Amino acid sequence: MNKARWTTAAASAAALLALAAGGAAAAAPATGSEAVIAVGSGGAVPAVSPDGTRAYVVSQQSGGGLALKVVNTGSDAVVGRLGLGTDTWISFLALTADGSRLYVLHGHTLSVVDTAALTLVGSYPLPDQARPAGWSVGATEGLALSQDGSTLYLAQDGPQTYRQNGQGQVLAFDTATRTFTGAVQVAATELGDLAVRPGSHDLYAGTVAGVVHLSTASAVPTVVGTVPGTGTANFYQLAFAPNGSRLFAVNGTVNGKGAVIDPGTDTVVRNLALPVSDLRAPRVSADGTKLYLADNDSSNGGEVLVYNAGTGAALTAQTIATDQDYLNAMALGPDGHTVYLGGTVGTTGNLQIIDY
C-alpha cells in the first residue's frame, strides 16, 4: 500500500550486508511495462511485490467466484492463477513487506496466500458478529497490516435489518497463529479504509461518523477518539504520507470533500478542494510530495488525479488518463513512477500498468 516499512536501522543493516557480499548495491525496483491485461470479469484489485516484478490481482471470474492472478510486470503475462472460492465480493489486499504473504479479505473470509509457491495457506471465516436475532452481519470494508507484519486489522460495518444499522467494528488477526484475537466496536454504522500510521501504534478508520483514531498498543485495538471536524464528511478513503506526518482523508460519497490531518494532534490542518466525483484509492508518492486519486468521472471514464501533497493544489497537467471505464483500485509501484490500476471495461476486469 505504498507505506514505508523499513527503519533506518534496517536500511543500515541491509547496506552492511550488501557490502559484506562484495559491495553490490541492491537492485532498483523494476518498472512495469505499460499494458492492459485481462484478469477476470470485474472488481480487479492489485498489489505489487516489493521488487516490482510481480503484480497480484484478485478479481471476479466469468465462470463465478474469485481468483488471484499473478502478472509478470516486465512481460505483462499472467504467470499464475489461484482460485479463492465462490465469493463475488470486492476484495481488499495486504502484502507483507518481504512479499512472502498476501492477505485477501473477500466477503466474510480472510485468505492467506504463500506468494512464492502460489498456494493457499488457509482461509479463515470471520467470527460471527454479535447482533439481534434476525439481523444480517455487516459487510467487510477494509484491511491493514501492522508494520511488523504481526497483526492484520479488518473493518466491518455494523449488523443491519430493515432501516436499522448497528455499530461497526475493527477486528484483529494474529498472523503467526492465524487466529482472530478480538474486536473493538466503533461508534459508526459504516466503515471504510483502515490505515496504519508508520512508526507508531496508531490505526485510523474511515467511517460515516468521521475519521476514528485507534491505538494498537495492545492485542486488541482501543478507540482513542474521532478527529474533530470529520464527522459529516463521509471520509471513507484514507492514506498516510510515508513518514506518517500527514493523513489524507477523502470522501466516499461524491461530495467533493477531502482533508489533511495531523495525526500528532488529530486535527484537520487543511481542507482539500476535490471534484464532486466518485473518488477512491488515495495513494501518496514515496517521497511524500504527491497525492494520487482514482477518479471515476462519468464523462471521461477512469483517470488518476494528482495533487501537491504539501499545498493541496491540483496538478492538472499531470492527470493520468486510463483505458478503463471504471477504476476499482490502485497501487503505486515501488519504483516511484509506475501505477497499477484495477479497472473494468464492459464485462472484463483488467490490470492496467502505466509508467507516468
TrEMBL record:
Gene3D superfamilies: YVTN repeat-like/Quinoprotein amine dehydrogenase (2.130.10.10). Residues 1-26 form the signal peptide. Keywords: Signal. This is Uncharacterized protein. It comes from Streptomyces tateyamensis.
